[in-house]
């Protein structure tokens, strides 16, 4: 989008979508919670809990890894693999949808108490998924390696 409409339009769209999301959350989230009365400074004691520190670090490093991935994926797809510029956005959208689906699916598994089930019960579908992921990773590495190795011969 930024290549087509400019970064300002993209930024405005993200801002509008964020406002819509916040409004929908305000409408849909339950209002039956009773906030605890605690002082302002006492709330910061929470950050000394090791579990909270690890949870915050997980979110920060996970987001950073995702942004790094998106930052370098477009140039790699364009320059190294040779994907035409018009298809890069489609690839990023597909990747984003896959990430969204996996987060929603993981949340549903956790809600049902099946968060660690794949570690204790190996089902055939998990094996199929693992094989597909390995094949996809191998094919991606092969494509990058082949284009890198063949580039000097093609550019002549």
TrEMBL record:
Keyword field: Cell membrane, Membrane, Transmembrane, Transmembrane helix
GO molecular function, one term: transmembrane transporter activity
Membrane-spanning ranges: 6-30, 51-72, 87-105, 126-150
Xref: InterPro entries: MFS, MFS_Efflux_Transporters, MFS_trans_sf
Domain of life: Bacteria
Chief localization: membrane
Gene Ontology cellular component annotations, sorted alphabetically: plasma membrane
Pfam families noted in UniProt: MFS_1 (PF07690)
Cell compartments where the protein resides: Cell membrane
Membrane topology label: Multi-pass membrane protein
Protein name (Swiss-Prot/TrEMBL): MFS transporter
Organism in which the protein naturally occurs: Bifidobacterium longum subsp. longum
